[in-house]
Specification:
By secondary structure, the chain is an alpha+beta fold. The chain is built from nine helices and eight strands. The chain folds into two domains: 57 residues, no CATH class; 156 residues, YojJ-like (1, CATH 3.40.1700. The radius of gyration is 21 Å and the shape is elongated.
């Protein structure tokens, strides 16, 4: 609204030949473009993501390929030791802006490496690991937090995981430092808790965009 008012004032000043006001607005206008980009960053990211869903664009995109064994093995191990972690598996929507603001890597996905990254009090443990095309592309990645978990007992890891699942098509796996429970976020939803024996089939169903596997009675789905 403020940007629209300032822009309108510029047109009025130009029409009424108010030279001083016209000069001020003319010099402010370039800054307004950057203000719009900053203020509407989440919306612009969603628009970019929606473009990648269009079939024409998908023709030029590589389909994600993942070997889930080392990822599942690492998650099970970290859950057993109550090691907090966030692992992001990207799909069609690029996470390049987040990766560029993180510690960038180019590593083969192995269970020992994932477990080492999330060892508490190490330089890379705080934040998420992002995996793309079966490569670890970044660590210590900070994700956008959701605003739809007010009053929830979940902490920053789960809020970040759900926040990314609201804005992109990524599959996000979380292990809780407090309880050791596993959660999986995808398509605006959080599946919690996930049994270790069900983790691989659930994540694979999300990656293939199939209907989620039938969850056990102890599981719940939190919808935004």
């Amino acid at each position: 609204m403020g940007v629209a008012i300032i822009w309108s004032l510029g047109s009025v000043a130009e029409y009424m030949e108010l030279e001083l006001l016209d000069w001020i607005i003319t010099n402010i206008r370039p800054a307004l473009v950057f203000a719009i980009i900053v203020l509407l960053q989440p919306e612009l990211r969603r628009i970019t993501g929606d473009l990648t869903r269009i079939r024409l664009f998908n023709l030029f995109l590589m389909k994600p390929v993942y070997d889930l064994e080392p990822i599942v093995d690492a998650v099970k191990s970290m859950a057993a030791t109550k090691t907090g972690s966030i692992i992001v598996l990207t799909k069609e929507i690029s996470l390049k802006p987040i990766v560029e603001d993180s510690i960038q890597l180019d590593s083969i996905v192995t269970s020992p490496l994932l477990r080492t990254i999330f060892v508490k009090n190490t330089p890379l443990h705080d934040g998420a690991v992002i995996i793309e095309q079966n490569r670890i592309v970044s660590a210590a990645s900070y994700l956008p937090m959701t605003n739809n978990m007010d009053g929830s007992t979940f902490g920053a890891r789960h809020r970040s995981a759900l926040g990314l699942a609201e804005e992109t098509d990524a599959v996000v796996i979380v292990t809780s430092e407090e309880t050791g429970e596993i959660s999986v976020c995808y398509n605006n939803e959080m599946v919690h808790p996930v049994k270790p024996t069900e983790l691989k089939s659930l994540v694979n169903s999300f990656l293939l965009e199939k209907k989620p596997v039938k969850k056990s009675d102890s599981s719940e789905v939190n919808k935004s």
